[in-house]
Automatic annotation (TrEMBL):
Domain of life: Bacteria
Single GO cellular component term: cytosol
Catalyzed chemical reaction(s): AMP + H2O = D-ribose 5-phosphate + adenine
Annotated source species: Simplicispira hankyongi
A molecular function (GO) term: AMP nucleosidase activity
GO biological process: cytokinin biosynthetic process
EC code(s) of this entry: 3.2.2.n1
Family that this chain belongs to: Belongs to the LOG family.
Protein name in the entry: Cytokinin riboside 5'-monophosphate phosphoribohydrolase
One Pfam family recorded for the sequence: Lysine_decarbox
UniProt keywords, alphabetically: Cytokinin biosynthesis, Hydrolase
Length: 198
């Protein structure tokens, strides 16, 4: 398998959710990553949206890197079909390795684990710990209540508009992923590989 042209970290639920559009979006994300010659970095599970995005990436020819703590291997049914499956000891190790291996971050619908991962990389971005783009895929208006709450936080003076601007919000997987990959910092070799292909 050729060296991936980019690497996207995807945060999403280990459950499928009630709306079939959630699963369709996860599959669309994985398919786009794979067909564009990219690499998925994700939480290493094979259930829910996590499993769907990993399966779709692999089926479309992409590379899949899973990172999962030992304590969750049995609970989340670790995806042994990953090209790389890293079993770590703590959630801190998991998140650090996922961030290190990625050029950009994308959050799909999910629960508190997804929220926590999104907010952590968002916090790291505002503090200048990384300059990698962050995207939020708002499937079926799932994130509208959260976005409204965050707008209220800006109005209340606890956040600035510039902090909201650190996250790109979109509803179409392909266009949002293309924006993230184009905005990602990359090496000269990666830049050459991407020219005219996204």
């Amino acid at each position: 398998m050729a060296e991936p042209r980019f690497s996207v970290c995807v945060y999403c639920g280990s459950r499928p959710g009630e709306n079939p559009l959630f699963g369709e979006a996860a599959q669309a994300v994985g398919t786009w990553i794979g067909t564009q010659g990219g690499q998925l970095v994700y939480g290493g599970g094979r259930s829910g949206l996590m499993g769907l995005v990993a399966q779709a990436t692999a089926q479309a020819g992409g590379r899949v890197v899973g990172v999962i703590p030992q304590s969750l291997v049995d609970k989340e049914h670790a995806n042994r079909a990953c090209d790389e499956l890293h079993i770590v000891q703590t959630m801190h190790e998991r998140k650090a390795l996922m961030a290190e291996r990625s050029d950009a971050f994308l959050a799909l619908p999910g629960g508190i684990g997804t929220f926590e991962e999104l907010f952590e990389v968002w916090t790291w971005s505002q503090l200048g710990y990384h300059n990698k783009p962050i995207g939020l895929l708002d499937v079926a208006d799932y994130y509208q209540p959260l976005l409204a709450f965050l707008s209220g936080s800006v109005q209340a003076g606890f956040m600035g508009p510039w902090q909201m601007d650190l996250v790109r919000v979109g509803t179409e997987p392909a266009s949002l992923l293309a924006q993230l990959v184009q905005a990602a910092p990359r090496s000269a070799a990666q830049e050459g590989a991407l020219q005219g292909k996204i």
